[in-house]
What does this fold into?
Amino acid sequence: MDTNKEREITVAILSVSLITVMAGAIVAPAMSSLSHFFSEQSPSVIKLIVTLPALLVIPTAMVTGRLADRFGRRNLLLLGLILYLVGGLGGAFSANFYILLGFRAILGLSVGLVMPISTGLVSEFFHGEKARQMMGWVSAANHFGGMAAQIVSGALAIMSWRCSFGVYGIALISLIVVAFWLPEPTSHAQKGQTTPLPRKTYFNSVFMLLLMVIFYTVPLNISLFVEGTGMGSSTTSGIACALVTGAPFLVGIFFQKITTLLGKSAVFVAICTMGLGMFTIGEANNITTVFAGALLTGTGEGFLFPYVMNAVRATVAPKDSVRALAVMSSMLYFGQFISPIVIDALSGLFTTPSSNQPFMIACALCLAGATISLGFTVKQRINKKCEKTA
It folds into this structure.
């Protein structure tokens, strides 16, 4: 591939990656303002503003692979970006809560189109170590976009919660870049019988679901926790959200080196780091400690996210990458949607609920995950030694 063309394709893919994973959570710093404005709605219903887009991603992503094969990756990506602008910016002009939810639903549909295609294009344009490196960069772009958007969203929310929805306008840049720089991949022309996806694809996709259930505890609850305990304002909450999504930016850039350095223990270390971050937030009595916990949480998630994406990508041929990553995307956003349901249900087991409970529950789930991961690692090493001695 020509160097200039490769650079243009890289920029196009990364520009789209900036706006996908944290799409629903971009307005999370404005949650407190939204709950006051729509005071007739319960806190659980208000959280739909953040989680509803994730729910709509699921059915859309499941058919994206077939639609992309029929209409082309590039065309479908452009349609998704247009819907993203409508669904994102439309929230600012909503006359009531239910119209706002309608625009959030459109946003979810758009992400269901954009996410699998933009990530799947990595396998269609890049191969080997370059593809693995690109997955790290995609993760870095995912989280950098979330970080920047949440900082701006938190600052705009001081003026009005409506202003915070203006951040979605960044998708216009992605739309222009894709229109001029992204070609249709040649693999689209490779027609053939559809092959079933391997079990590893589904196993890794469930891993992504569990990761999102735990990780999404932070953007959903940090605003209510920080402002409810008097530790800061919506701007402070935006900074905390930015840190938890910004730390993975650096981790994603160095993903390949970190994987090589930690080897098979990388997943265990990452889960432990994420759990320590949740515990730190839950025990915080000042905003500095909250920021430290956000960094730790983001660092752990920042490794696990590209790890799972790369594992899914590596299980299939390039022509099947959009289908495989559509399954993963569905589980990713389903995890985001059910996160408050799961965490609130577990919180309900306690007779004295408090604002820090979601983070302590997330910490306990990380501890369970780390134990399972350690068990798998030990089992693999034992099996390897048995094979050598056999």
User: Anything to note?
Assistant: The chain has one domain: 3-183+198-385.
